[in-house]
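Hey, I'm writing a tutorial for new members on how sequence and structure tokens pair up, and I'd like a real worked example in the thread rather than a made-up one. If someone can provide the structure for the chain below, I'll link this post from the tutorial.
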Amino acid sequence: MCRNIRTLHNFAPAATDEEIRASAIQFVRKVSGFNRPSKLNEAAFELAIERVSSATHDLLHALVTHAPPRDRGVEAAKARRRSELRFARN
């Protein structure tokens, strides 16, 4: 359920609004237990997504690091390799 919740800090280029929103949606889904809210709960669900997105933006802008930014392509290649090793047939 949380496949879109990824580390967003210290990447070049920086996390996009779409990536932050995707993570917020997954977080709210996990916390609420709903993949899609009912019409009655839709407004609360959307408000929660907006607030989590806003808090994430604030957090990412406030964090400080001395490490060089990570490259998205390199990190994706590492993840693919880990997956290959994990699911390789023996």
